[in-house]
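Reviewer 2 asked us to include a model.

Predict the structure of this chain.
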Amino acid sequence: MSEPLKCCICLDEFTSPATLPCGHCFCLGCVGEYWRTNRTYQCPLCKAVFPTRPQLKTDQTLQPKDAAVPLRAGEVPCDVCPAKRQAVKSCLVCMASYCDAHLESHYQSEDLGRHLLISVVKNLEDCVCRLHGKKLERFCRSDQTLICAMCAQTEHRQHNIISITGEASKKKVKLKRRKTKLQQAIQDKLSKVEKIKLSLNFCGRNQKEVRSQNKQQIQQLEEEISELQRRNYELEKLLHTEDDLHFLQVYVMVESQQITN
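Predicted model (structure tokens):
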């Protein structure tokens, strides 16, 4: 009984606990996301189905103390709270990012519950088509650009269009092949360096010119290895980008820079 109560969805202590008509309690955000993704008002535990969206009220007695924590590098602040807590979701309708507390209304209200929530992003305007003001959700392979549904029906009509998720999957496969080749190139150059270093041990004292050439070759190879390792790190970082939209934006930008250079 002394152990803190936990939500059976996130398996963590309750954040804004909300009790359903069936009596089961969950974090408001957890059950709100569950309903949003499954598109049915059902208890995640007992599977009881509710004909209409239940009005969820949070139990503040179970609410843990939520002190404002300084934001770390890369974290996005909530656009509403004065304390500037870390945002956990971004809304493409409100064009704002919210912390757990200020996201509650999107899970409590049926109207706000229809809004499109995405993983928190730093620059929301980058997720919206600048021409039509709609969410970027497709990729034009003909023009190698991100487009919205309106673009697909107008400027990019009859183009080769694919979903963002589908295109991201294809490009990640391509990047993994490129990464494998990079790693092989690094290993080949490292082997060359080792062979040259071994040959230095067998050079006579009078072969100063040969030793000097070998050292220059080692230096050049090490510089090439350093550059390959940098590119390999950038590929690794890009491959670990979870948001498909952001992944494609970075991918297209990198590819255009390489073509320009």
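Residues 164-201 form the longest helix (38 residues). Helices lie at 28-38, 100-108, 149-153, 164-201, 208-239, 244-260. We have added this to the supplementary material.
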